[in-house]
């Protein structure tokens, strides 16, 4: 039921006598549901061992919410992941959290203990508190056992734009009220996001992706500076839903079809309504795989997702170009298609996806490829759209997000 949104659902009821009765189920949008709100995604990915003396850190993570967050509570995970594996934390992690809204008011959320393997650990619910819409800072004081491990976020490569931290400073929790800095690329994991009372119609979109979805190439939405990656860019551009990053650089459907159980359980727990998946380019860049294996692996992955997250809707993107660029930026004269893609597999996959190739395994597709491609050669990036032939620069990301937002395939 977590994925229902307002509207009318047509259904057919078959009686024991074999009669078929048409019916319509009306879902009201006047109620609320507990759901992650704002833009989350702080899953841990890499261990960083403390030196046995400085076993704490302070971190501030800025998010953006299109709606006020009512009766908020912070959520944390007891597991970490990378491009192809998930694993429990090595040791307990104590987190003292606070939320600071755009009004500058600081709300203390108390302390929790996160144990290895925990899926969704919540702070106290702040009954009667409303965090205003807009930019919100999630602030945490984290502590691990002496000689224990921090769990660093490797994938937010441009994190310095919206995250601040101090590591190896054993300061009391009163630091929550003070300044934290400077920024860094790899930051200790803390709270994933904020759960609150959301209108039923407000959707939470889980982004299951790879380096493109988590912001390599350094695309950032022009207005919402915390939205990194083209998937997040589309969601915040519409301003009617929240998102949760779950992907990782280097990820492929061939790996993730069997290594997403913990993340799927977390998504079910925090109320994910939709999945936005951009996996595929790393599969197609692997000579041992093909467009056929990618289709089969995505079908398996999406079916497991439906089972783990009841009622979820799934959206798969087409695959953007993969080239070798022999200059500072892509042009119509300096690109060569990578070897594995030269058999036309990307074009075949995209054509098949557009014509229903994943069938009932998905609810629809999202067109990333066409707005990213050169008008001269569809196997290349558009002029100035990429620097490395794999990830979109700001110009490339702008082109993709503008086109997707205009088409609005998810109906946001």
What does this 3D model show about the protein?
With 412 residues, this protein is an alpha+beta fold. It has 2 domains: 158 residues; 206 residues, SGNH hydrolase (Rossmann fold), CATH 3.40.50.1110. 18% of the residues lie in helices and 32% in strands. It has 8 helices and 25 strands. The strands form 7 sheets. A 6-stranded parallel β-sheet has the order 4-20-19-21-22-25, with helices on one face. Strand 1 and strand 2 form a beta hairpin.
Question: How much helix is in the residues?
Answer: 10-25%
What name is given to the CATH topology of the largest domain?
Rossmann fold
Which residues sit in consecutive blocks of at least 5 with pLDDT less than 50? Answer: 155-162, 170-178, 180-185
In spatial order, strands of the major sheet run 4-20-19-21-22-25
Shape: globular
Average residue pLDDT: 85
| Head-to-tail CA distance between termini | 19 Å
Number of domains: 2
- Which structural category do the helix and sheet elements fall into? alpha+beta
Given the structure, what is the number of helices? 8
Q: What is the annotated CATH architecture of the largest domain?
A: 3-Layer(aba) Sandwich
């Amino acid at each position: 039921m977590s994925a229902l949104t307002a509207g009318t659902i047509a259904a057919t009821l078959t009686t024991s006598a074999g009669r078929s009765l048409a019916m319509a189920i009306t879902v009201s949008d006047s109620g609320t549901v507990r759901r992650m709100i704002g833009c989350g995604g702080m899953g841990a990915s890499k261990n960083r061992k403390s030196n046995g003396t400085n076993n704490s850190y302070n971190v501030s993570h800025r998010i953006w919410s299109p709606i006020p967050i009512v009766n908020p509570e912070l959520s944390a995970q007891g597991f970490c992941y990378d491009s192809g594996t998930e694993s429990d934390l090595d040791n307990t992690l104590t987190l003292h959290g606070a939320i600071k809204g755009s009004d500058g008011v600081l709300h203390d959320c108390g302390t929790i203990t996160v144990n290895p393997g925990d899926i969704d650990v919540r702070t106290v619910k702040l009954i009667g508190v409303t965090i205003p819409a807009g930019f919100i800072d999630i602030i945490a004081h984290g502590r691990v056992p002496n000689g224990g491990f921090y769990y660093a976020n490797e994938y937010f490569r441009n994190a310095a734009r919206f995250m601040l931290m101090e590591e190896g400073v054993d300061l009391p929790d009163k630091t929550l009220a003070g300044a934290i800095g400077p920024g860094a690329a790899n930051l200790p994991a803390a709270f994933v996001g904020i759960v609150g009372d959301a209108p039923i119609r407000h959707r939470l979109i889980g982004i299951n992706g790879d380096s493109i979805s988590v912001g390599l190439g350094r695309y950032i939405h022009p207005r919402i500076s915390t939205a990194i990656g083209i998937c997040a860019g589309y969601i915040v551009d519409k301003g009617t839903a929240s998102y949760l990053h779950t992907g990782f650089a280097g990820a492929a459907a061939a790996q993730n079809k069997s290594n997403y159980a913990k993340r799927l359980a977390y998504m079910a727990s925090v109320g994910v309504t939709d999945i936005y998946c951009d996996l595929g380019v790393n599969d197609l860049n692997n000579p041992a795989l093909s467009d056929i294996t990618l289709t089969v692996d995505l079908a398996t992955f999406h079916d497991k997702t439906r089972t783990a997250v009841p009622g979820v809707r799934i959206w798969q993107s087409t695959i953007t170009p993969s080239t070798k660029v022999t200059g500072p930026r892509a042009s119509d004269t300096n690109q060569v298609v990578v070897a594995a893609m030269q058999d036309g597999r990307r074009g075949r996959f995209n054509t098949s996806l557009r014509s229903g190739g994943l069938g009932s395994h998905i609810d629809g597709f999202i067109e990333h490829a066409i707005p990213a491609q050169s008008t001269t050669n569809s196997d290349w990036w558009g002029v100035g759209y990429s620097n490395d032939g794999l990830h979109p620069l700001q110009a490339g990301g702008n082109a993709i997000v503008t086109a997707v937002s205009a088409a609005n395939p998810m109906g946001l």
